[in-house]
Design goal:
Length: 191
């Protein structure tokens, strides 16, 4: 049974790769035709409408390709990201390298490596231990208070329709939570 699943997955991957490679060739042909139509000085009404149609198709497939690769990257992370695997350690190491501060300038001086943390600590300790020199006052500035009915309305539980409206207002390719599910998933299986 596992061999059948593996064969099915392998066949599906080959089919998907064939689909995208043929689509890339088709989009490349569209781009070529778009450039030749744009380079023409006098184009007919039919050619102009063909140009607009090709531009819309090319843009639509660029968006689809972007969504496809976003979803593929999420699938890789969901499958291998939380396991104690080489994939996880490579991702963590790459993130650590990207976020590591190599040097920092504080007060006109450059600090490197292990000297950064003590310099930051000293800087902020000095900054926050100084007495406050100026405090702004706004003598005639009055904020209006919420009415009791508004305060009650803010504290009431969310209604089903409000949550649905919020989900529908999000972009369909976005994944608002840490689970990685895109908004399109929630819209599809809402009820």
């Amino acid at each position: 049974a596992l061999a059948e699943v593996a064969l099915h997955q392998e066949g599906g991957a080959r089919l998907e790769a064939h689909f995208w490679s043929s689509k890339f060739l088709e989009v490349a042909d569209w781009d070529e035709e778009i450039m030749s139509l744009q380079a023409s000085d006098n184009i007919s009404v039919d050619q102009s409408s063909r140009l607009i149609c090709l531009q819309c198709l090319a843009q639509e497939w660029q968006i689809r390709e972007s969504i496809h690769w976003q979803q593929r990257s999420r699938l890789g992370w969901l499958a291998h990201g939380d396991q104690n695997s080489r994939f996880f350690h490579l991702a963590a190491s790459q993130r650590r390298r990207q976020t590591l501060l190599q040097s920092m300038g504080i007060g006109g001086r450059i600090f490197l490596g292990d000297d950064i943390l003590p310099a930051l600590s000293a800087h902020f300790q000095d900054f926050y231990s100084k007495p406050l020199r100026f405090r702004a006052t706004l003598p005639d500035f009055h904020l209006s208070s919420l009415s009791v009915s508004c305060a009650i309305a803010l504290e009431r539980p969310f209604q089903h329709q409000e949550i649905k409206n919020a989900v529908w207002a999000l972009g369909s390719g976005k994944a608002p939570g840490i689970d990685g599910f895109p908004v399109k998933f929630f819209r599809t299986f809402w009820e």
